Amino acid sequence: MGPPGAGKGTQARFVADHFGVPAISTGDIFRANVSQGTPLGVEAKRYMDAGEYVPDEVTNRMVRDRIDEPDAEPGFLLDGYPRTLDQVGELDGMIKHTGHALDAAVVLTVDPEELVQRLLQRAQTDGRADDTEDVIRRRQEVYTEQTAPLIEVYRERGILVEVDGMGEVDEVTTRIFDALDVIPES
C-alpha cells in the first residue's frame, strides 16, 4: 500500500519475484482493459480519468477472479487492492474461501510533494494521460480519505510493515526484503 507514486508497482514486481508469487495489480488490469476497449475498461476509464477509484463491485469481481487462478494458489501479492475499508472485508472473505492468509501489509511512505513530482515525471516519460497535476493531486486526496484508514486496520491486526519509500529503487527494495524476510509464512 501507499499513495499513488510511492513505487508500489515497481516494488511489487521485485517482491513477487523474490517470493515466487504473482503480482496482482488492479491498475495494470484496469489499464489493459482500457487499452483493449472492454466494457470493464470503458467503465473504469471514466473514473480513472477523473482521479477517482473504480467502484468496489467492479474491482472486487476482478480481484476475486484473479486470485482464483492456478498460479495464485501458492500465494500472491496484491498491488492496489484493497483500497477501501469495504474492500478489506471483501478480501477477508476471498482469502477465507481460497484458504490463503495475509502474511503482511506493506505500506510505502513518501513525502507528498515528492509523489507529485514523481508522477509528473512518469507522465512525461510513459505518456500516461491520467497523470495531469490536477488528477495527481485528486488521487492523493482520495488516497488520504479512503485508503489511509486501512493502514490502521492492518496495524491492529499486527501485520503492517511500514517502509520508507524515499531513495533509489534498489534501496527501497532492500528495505522491503529486510522487513519481510523475517516474517514467517502462513
Which terms summarize this structure?
single chain; 186 residues; mainly alpha; Rossmann fold; two-stranded parallel sheet; globular
Please characterize this protein's 3D structure:
By secondary structure, the chain is mainly alpha-helical. It has a single domain, classed as Rossmann fold (3-Layer(aba) Sandwich), CATH 3.40.50. Helix content is 60%, strand content 9%. It contains 8 helices and 4 strands. The chain has helices at 8-19, 26-36, 39-49, 56-67, 85-98, 112-126, 133-156, 169-180, and strands at residues 23-25, 77-79, 105-109, 160-164. The strands form 2 sheets. A two-stranded parallel sheet has the order 1-2. Helix 1 (8-19) packs across helix 8 (169-180), helix 4 runs parallel beside helix 5 and helix 6 (112-126) crosses helix 7. The longest helix is centred in the last third of the chain and has 24 residues, at 133-156. The protein is globular, with a radius of gyration of 16 Å. The mean pLDDT is 90.
